[in-house]
Amino acid sequence: AWLAQRWGAPRGNEFGRDALLVWAAGDGRGGEFAELAAKLPALAAEVRQELSRRVGPMGGLALDAWMRGAGSRLIELAVLAEAARPLTGGVAWVHLRQRMVTFGVTPKEAESVLQQLGQSVGHALTLIGVDSESRKRQLLEAADRSVEDPEVRAHLASGNSVRLRMGFEHLEHVLTEALVHAEQALEEGRLLTREVQTAIEAHQALSRHGLAEHAPWTDRAREAVRLLGWLANHQHALSKAGLLHDDPATELGRIARWYADEGGYVDLARHRAWGPAASPLDTAVTALRERADRARRALDLRFARAMGEWVQAGRPSKEVLPIEEALAKIAVPFLEESEDRRLLVLLLDGMAWSQAVELLDSLRRFDDGWAPIHFNRRRTAESELPIVFAALPTVTEVSRSAFFAGKRMDAGKEHDTQDDPKRLAQHRGLKPFFSGTAIPRLFLRADAQVKAGSVSEALLTEVRDPSIRLTAAVFNTIDDSLKNNASQKQDWRVETIGPLRDLLLAARRAGRHVMIASDHGHVPSDGLRNLGMPTKGEGRRWRMHREGETTIGPEEVMIGPKGAWLPKGADGVILLSDDSARYGASTASGEHGGASLAEVLAPCAILGWDELGESQGSLSLLARYEPAWYRLEAVTEGAAPARVRKRPDSK
């Protein structure tokens, strides 16, 4: 009690080895106590005896360090002792025992005291960090600098310390070696089960280190390990899914299904893995990302060629839904199944699957959980999200207009998206859900949100009105972001799309389901090559075709009038078939108009939640789970299938 009241020592429930370490390092009155102890040695001896009785030899050690003003050095030694705990003997322990002598600890006691220090320092650092995170970092850096001998540093680092810089650098090297060896195995075509597991374990160890959150490449390293898992499983998954097929219509649908289920995660990981090659780990990450890029672009090329043949054959596949049929084949059957159903159609202009998977993951955690719904089981044999193809070329004026009009846009004419409300009002499939003069209303930017970016009261009123079976709104947040400089990074969550949060809350309270859709996707500007400036009326990812005047490059596909909107004077459009190039230079962070999977496949789903009851019909929540490789699970059997979670009221 006297030590606590007079000298600030911990007492009661706060007393312990960790708190004693913090007190010894942080209280500056140890010299004053040392003067008193010199005058009253019996008192000092009794204090030492009491502390040793309470916590063992470390009690007297902490007291001595405090009196000598060496408490910080003791914590530094404790950090090293913690790093050495997994090791058995060796130069690190010899080094630490020698340093214990400077604190007056006998060789016989050194081992046990070091063990006590290593066990106690973790919570001690937590207590210090609560008061001063910078003080904590200073102690850790000082501990690291105090070991100069290369052999001792290497031995301590091998203990995988979660605090010391030397441990972090060791773990970084381990992960680098794991990625390099995996890249070699990929090059040699070997099975990668062991390499993938090694890389996952190395990444997990590195992620637990205290310095990981401050390293600029931490996220890139995680994405590289994910891409490694995908690459290891890629060829097996393609074969198992039947993607290696000769029939264009069959191949087109199966590649598209793969992309809707898994490709968005691949593209998200590829995008996040971009960065400079400033270190050996950066170089290893870049090598894996480039290999993933090549694999993805090969799929894009196959997809684009199959799509060209599919168009020529009259678009026969039942697995694919052209965007002009999306409302008629998704929204209309959903409303027809029950008169009690109400729907809000939200079109997020320019949303690709790489954003959709982020947003769907965010929705699962929002407001006790939203998830895509599978309904009308007669439509598909399996519980899957629909595969919606954007109109070609994949530009807003063509594809968004077709979505709301329910028909393809006339060739040779310009189409203004400001006319989309009229197009929705005239949609034939929606007329049965409105009586008299009532029509479905579409809220564009000026009506859907206020200047501050939040949802407008007019749209909220429409959502809350039970007499309105369907209402719709367009949000341009994602498409607008594509015009920004590529250095601006964006996570796509419910909170980052201004009006979305309040709109979803209002829809849920009103018992209104939400159809979330996109008019087209896009490709990020990562590494896009300049293929030369487009002419007037063309885009960054598409150009006009004129018979006898235009040549088609290996990265391009030509689509004729059967499958695309054509500008006046053209007999076809030429679309870039992968995500590696654009026409002209640009500072935009994304482009669209081409025929890549990321642009053509427009995400679409009807969303619901667990608690909403159904008076008629049958609904199931389709819980979207990331592929196993994205969850950093070492598998080589193909991507984990989507799982269906039935509602309690479903039949």
Compact summary:
This protein has 651 residues and is of the alpha/beta class.
Structure, explained:
This protein is α/β, with parallel strands linked by helices and 651 residues long. 48% of the residues lie in helices and 10% in strands. It is built from 24 helices and 17 strands. The strands form 5 sheets. An 8-stranded mixed beta sheet has the order 5-6-2-7-15-3-16-17, with helices on both faces. Helix 14 (248-272) packs antiparallel against helix 15. The radius of gyration is 32 Å and the shape is elongated.
Features:
10% strand; 24 helices; 17 strands; 3-stranded antiparallel beta sheet; disordered C terminus; 8-stranded mixed beta sheet; 651 residues; alpha/beta
In terms of quaternary structure, the protein is single chain
Trace the largest sheet across and list its strands.
5-6-2-7-15-3-16-17
- C-alpha termini separation: 69 Å
Radius of gyration: 32 Å
DSSP helix count? 24
Major sheet details: 8 strands, mixed
> Helix proportion of residues, in percent?
40-55%
**What shape does the CA trace take?**
elongated
Secondary structure elements and pairings:
Elements (H helix, E strand, L loop, with lengths): L1 H6 L9 H10 L3 H10 L1 H15 L1 H11 L3 H14 L6 H11 L5 H25 L1 H13 L4 H8 L7 H24 L4 H15 L10 H23 L7 H25 L7 H33 L7 E3 L3 H11 L6 E6 L4 H12 L6 E4 L12 E3 L6 H10 L14 H6 L15 E3 L1 H4 L8 H8 L5 E6 L1 H5 L18 H10 L3 E5 L5 E2 L4 E2 L11 E4 L10 E4 L12 E5 L4 E2 L7 E2 L5 H4 L3 E5 L11 E4 L19 E4 L5
Parallel strand pairs: 1-4, 2-6, 2-7, 5-6, 9-13
Antiparallel strand pairs: 3-15, 3-16, 7-15, 8-14, 10-12, 11-12, 16-17
Helix pairs in contact: 2-5, 2-6, 2-8, 3-4, 3-5, 4-5, 5-6, 6-7, 6-8, 6-9, 7-8, 8-9, 10-11, 11-12, 11-13, 11-15, 12-13, 13-14, 13-15, 14-15, 14-17, 21-23
